[in-house]
Structures are given as structure tokens and as C-alpha cells.
Design goal:
Strands 3-2-1-4-5 form a five-stranded mixed sheet, sandwiched between helices. Helix 4 crosses helix 5. It is of the alpha/beta class. The chain is elongated and about 105 Å long. Helix content is about 50%, strand content about 15%. It has two domains: about 80 residues; about 160 residues, Ribonuclease H-like superfamily/Ribonuclease H (Nucleotidyltransferase, domain 5, 2-Layer Sandwich).
Length: about 270
Amino acid sequence: MCDQLGVSRSSYYDWNTPSAARTKRSELMLAVLDAFTRSHHADGYRKVTATLHRKGFTANRKTVARQMNLLGLISPGAQRQFRRAKQRAARGKDPVDLLSRDFRTLEPGRVLVGDITYVPTHEGWLYVATVIDLATRMVLGCATGSRQTAGLAIRALRNARASGLVQAGAIFHFDHGIQYRSKAFARECGKGIRRSMGARFECWDNAVAESFFSKLKTERLDWLTFITRKAAASEVDRYIEHFNNTRLHQGLGYLTPGERLTQLQQAA
């Protein structure tokens, strides 16, 4: 074969005999694969490097990371983090906070707040999205569903607009939920709504929306058991009707939101 290819036999044997460097790389690759497998595919390159050092290998982190990359070794947790980082990079810039916890306004339909909560049923969670007018504390729009999606928040906003009480150029304030940060919701708000977002993990930035959900649960839902999502959704609708038109609101001078709306409209 060497004669046919015009290669000397010594060159062939030099090529066919693994060098010390090649042997070392192969041993390292097998050790990396073994350490990753023994961690149940959970360790990253730092922990794999530490495991190899305990076994006498002197490879640094960059070398181990390169070997893991060549072998396609990545933990499910890291994959999830990479996907989230990619989603964050593709997402537009988050809206600024236009309220700064100042929830005072006397102009109905000018400043809105919204959020999403969940209600347990025997069929699974029922998710509830609301849109509340700050001036009157009236729930202008509500939507329920079996999934916590951007579509749920969009339906609640559309229902609020259908009430005829949302002014053009109104501010809609919400928290850092992924539904409100979605492109679909941003497009919906682009039709005459200015978006406002509170800080992450700061429930007080959206205190009015959180307060309504607290009342919904403590005054009505926590005392009931729901077999179906439909039954829970009907009870949510009944409470909103009560909240808007019957329940006296201490912050409104013991008026109902409906009475407060009439009062502000007459004063305008």
C-alpha cells in the first residue's frame, strides 16, 4: 500500500502510531464524558473541571469547555438559560414606569392597571386577567382562560375598550409578566395605549391591581370550591358586577366604582 501511494513505511508508522499529545487529548475527552455522565448531565464546565482535578488531570477550564463543546455536552438547565437569554435579546426594550406608585387621578379612563391571577378548580387552574380604571377603581375589562398567555391579557384589554370608557392615549400599567412584555401585547397597545411597567419583584408598583385580586379571593373565591373552570369564571363575573355596582369602596369615600364614575363625569 505504501509503494502504491508513494509513501515511505516510516512515515506510515509515524502517522498510525498515536502521539503522546493525541493520547492525552483522547484520555481527557473520555474523562470529560465520564464526569459529565456521572453528574447525570447536570454539571457545567466549571464543575467538570473540578471533578477532573480531583482525579489528577491538570486541564484548565477553557480546555474542558472546548472539549464539552466538541462533544455537545450541555446540561438541560444551561439549555433553558440560553433559550431565555435568546428570547430576552430578541424582545424589545421594556416600557418605563410612568406611575412611580402614584395612583392618584381624577380623569376616568386615563390611567389603567392590569394583572393576571389564578383560581384553582378540579379541572386545573383558571387564569383571570383584568383591566382596572384608577380614577374609579372600576374593572373595565376581564378575561378568563385555561392558559396564561398574551392572548388572555389582550382579550381583557379589548373588553375594557369595548366598555367605551378607555380614553385615547391612556396609560396602561402592569407588572413584569411575560404576557405583558410580549410583542403581541405591545402591538395591541400600539393602538392608542401607552405602556407602563413596574420593577421586577415589586408588587407595590402595581398595588391597585394586586389589591383587587386580594379582595376577589378573600371576599368570594377562597370560600368556594369549583368543579369546573366555567363555574369559577361565572363566579368571577358575578363578583366583578358586585364590585363595580354594589360594593362600597373605602378609598372612594364609601361610594361604589359606578357611583364614582358618575360623580367624576358630572364634575367634568
